User: Fold these one by one.
Assistant:
Number 1:
Amino acid sequence: MENIPNTKVHNLNIINRHKGSFNGIKSVIAFAPEEVKLSTEMGCLTVKGEELHVISLDVDRGELEFQGRIDSLIYSEDNSPGKRASRFVGRLFK
């Protein structure tokens, strides 16, 4: 595994696809019973499933616990408005 200096820790712990605890969470972008979008230390994380709900959230510590059926985890780049705008402008001038 590659050692990346000055990177904060981001961990996922999923038990039997029905309970999860994550750390390294910066913020919750959206939360619905079928989809959770999180901003993490490693980019945007989308969790898809059914009957997802929060057990606990500690934004100061960057920790989230939830349960429900987990069908998929998808990472993408940070989706903050400033990042999206800069990527769009960059594509215009290529």
Number 2:
Amino acid sequence: MQVVDKKELIKKLDLVIDKLMNLDGPANEDELKEGGEAIGFFKRDFGISEWDWPQGVGLYGLLKVMKSLNREDYKEFLCNWFKNNIEQGLPSRNINTTTPLLTLVELNESVQDKEFEKLCMNWAEWLMRCLPRTEERGFQHVTSANGDRQGVRLNENEMWIDTLFMTVLFLNRMGQKYQRQEWIDESIHQVLMHIKYLYDKESGLFYHGWTFNERNNFGAIFWCRGNSWFTAGILEYIEMFHGSMNAGVKEYVIDTYKAQVRALKKLQSKSGLWHTVLNDASSYEEVSGSAAIAAGILKGIKLGILDDSYLECANRAVAAIMKNVAEDGTVLNVSGGTGMGYDADHYKNILIAPMAYGQSLTILAFAEALNVL
């Protein structure tokens, strides 16, 4: 079995973190811009300064390292990031712009900032009362409008797998912190809804989305990063309950996670990464989704949910991700923002560029690796 060098892993981790905190747009931004949304170009997605999901996931990775490795020096960066964004004015409220709040609610446990607390409370109430719903009261995957910070795309009657990480984790965390059972119950409902409509029982994998309007899974594509949001996010979700989760619901969710991971293990490429379309070997290997999958598998091993037969799979993944960290800490081969697709080519044609979530998900994978490998 391939063994990861921990000293080299720590070195790479520090490089990736430093790059995340100083991340700018790609050098070929003008060239990418010409491809537009068809290749996943959304200007807001680049760098670390904007308030949206790529940065929100990035901040969460930084927070995880700060807490697990006692790196208190990152706290000032996080506090300043939130203060600066609040001062400049926040974008529209939607699924994706909820993501930074997952970090804020945990950060505020040590900061105790009243402004931070008020924002989190108001946003949780907004999710409960104002966020558009699909049939059966699913969270509609409302996103930011491209080029308009105050605009939204409604994606009417659509549920996307991303929502579990971007919004449901925050709502559950708030429910647990403030003992708001209705928030906890809503988060459980959303988890079960997304499993009901996005999980494929035959393959064990998740589709990217579901539309109630057409009553189908769009292109029925098994997208790597989409699946990884469940792999990495669902154990974060369960941990938030600290053992208080309903036993029947917990068993159902964990069984779904284990079935998914079994399928993912079989689809791992020889390099140790996963293809951006999981079951299409002609699609490129993608690092951010692979990193989140690795993080989810490592956490499953740590929690005793997965047995040691998954160690080799995790080792190979981490070693492959390490090879995709450039000398300056940039995580390579990360796909851009990916809207809903109706065929595999949509996912194959998404641009590759340095992204905040690529840095962050690599951080999560490396941090979990230090705990397990």
Number 3:
Amino acid sequence: MSRTADIKRKTKETDVILSLTLDGKGKSEVATGIGFFDHMLEGFAKHGFFDLTVSVNGDLEVDGHHTVEDTGIVLGQAIKEAVGDKAGLKRYGYFILPMDDALCLCAVDLCGRPYLRFECDLQAERVGALETELVREFFYAVSYSAGMNLHIKMLSGENTHHMIEAMFKAFAKALDQATSIDERVEDVLSTKGSLE
């Protein structure tokens, strides 16, 4: 079974083309026009063993908000499509990831209900061309488009670059775990019989 998704989303603000393979090798080709954001998405793919292609043409002359948020929307849609009916999924995933001074906890539930809990105090306003307040907007968009519970908590950290990178990598590891197949799960892992 090929767990993949190809999503296109075009508005007056952005044109996003994204391809995701859950059972990949960690290969990526990313071009959003925001260098540090590209680096984070590449790290997400590498550490989650996802194959990811992202091309975004956004209104960066305004700012990075639409580019980052819309990429999150499309990635969330791709995750939702790629997991399909969620039969056999572990459903839950969690990881605590160290990145030098930063220590990030991330937990995921592919329950079909959107929710984001984001506890992180980023001191710097920018890392490269990425406005750091957009990191929360990205994860919010992913969680709501995918229909997942997503909790991200920075347990410690001083360097904003390290903290953001720890978030993306911890999310990758938690999502890889949640999307893994458990042969003991005959249908979906829910007493309700549905993860919608």
